[in-house]
Amino acid sequence: MGRQKMPYVVGYNWVKRKELPWNKEKLLKNVESVEGLRWRIVDAKGVVLGRLASHLSVLLQGKDKPTYNPSKDDGDIVVVVNAKEIELTGRKFENKVYRWHTGYPGGLKERTVKEQWEIDPTVVLRRAVSGMLPKNNLRKLRTRKLQIFEGPEHDFVGEKYADVEFVPYDLPERNIKMKGRVEFLDHSKLPEGYQPLNREWYDKMCRLYKIANPYPAEVGDFKSKGEVGSKKD
Predict the structure, then answer these.
(1) Which residues form a coiled coil (predicted)?
(2) Which one, out of 9, 148, 223, 233, has a CA that is 20 to 30 A from the CA of 204?
């Protein structure tokens, strides 16, 4: 058995911290006020760890609001479910290592993501989000509003949370930058006789995507430096 926490003393009665009157009335533990804040629920199933953490850090800071102020803690409350179904790219599951020091000589400790996943998978996401938040006094307050759960269910149910409206947050489509490549490779939409205005850029893109240039330079066309070329005899 692990070491049990010492209960709090109120008067002559021994009371646990969660049973204290001022903690029973709060909707979220260790958060002073949730008035005016939205409850955002995020499904982490099949989402890459770093990509999800970057979006959660924006929600916790309140950067998605027009009233964003970096010196105030006005970010929304974020509830993440299915944290155990999150994904890591490459070999980070075996090679990524968490390190910390106990403060004593020779006290450098380390633990891989796989080992931490077996102990508590929610810590992996929490550390990723915490690392993306600004390193100031507000980081601790913002991480308190991040509630992570391993499965599809969360603890914010019952009469106490009857008036709470959970707003789902869907991450945008992945690989948005690749759309430009698809449009560049699709020449069916271009009109007949099309010639690129900036031929130097077009040749560079063709070399980048490793395709043949379908619009070769015409006779008397402009060179890369903007000089007029001479016609062939």
Answers:
(1) none
(2) 233
